[in-house]
Amino acid sequence: MNNSQKTLFDRLIMEYPDASKQSIRKWLKHGRVLLNEKVVRKSDVMTQNLDKVILSKKKLDNLPFEILYFDADIVVADKPAGMLSVASLDPSEKHVHGYLKKHFKSEKLAPLHRLDKEVGGPLIFVKNQKSFDLYKNLFVRHEIKREYRAIVHRGFETDSGSYDSYLKEGNSYRMYETSPNEGKRAITHYQVINQNDEYAFIKLQLHTGRKNQIRVHLSTDGHSIVGDVKYGAESISGNAIALYGHHLEFIHPVTKKLMRFKSRPPFIFDRLLKKAHLL
Fold first, then answer.
1. C-alpha–C-alpha distance, residues 108 and 179, integer Å
2. Deepest in the core among 46, 117, 170, 200, taking most CB within 10 A?
3. Distance (Å, rounded) from C-alpha 214 to C-alpha 186?
């Protein structure tokens, strides 16, 4: 190790000489230490002289969801199922956007995309207009990979395939397939992980990002997502549905590094997989 390198723990001792080692360990444990604006909990991570080390004034785990990553341009949050991505007409409903604006003390923070209320998974927010333009271009060029996992009714005849149709929103906020003249094009790719005659466990990749796209494509094909009452399935547990955002990845437009974020499946997923004999 040369003189320009120090472990994060040693760096904290140097920069906060009045703090005890026990306090520094607690800071790391509770996610209060930021290295180049990213939460780091491991004390043996190596740092360089130019690396920016900050002690946050508030714990980053005081939110009802996890912040997977943030830097000067974006925030990636792990949206929980059952919470809105953004505000609705009901001002009493909690939403990820509201929590993050308050947490980062920024009214400029804006969602780059959205997830249905019933669906959890990684969600990107941008901090300024320049960031919005940079990341929106990634979406337009289909350079942000979004993979989902779902448990659906009925097995598939083929192990993989694609849906390509045009979607339109009806009066009841329910999306449906229509003609090219009336709707917007929606493309979804799927691959079977495991299946039987009654159920299938599949992964899906979005090529476009229309509202309720996955749910409409699957239900129209006779493979409604388990629990998705809105699109023809029976209720399983409140408003829960067997769909979540499994992971999201892209090349950071500034650093050019591969960014990959994974989300844990909702608590009902393993139980449903066992019940459907797909484990």
1. 37
2. 200
3. 9
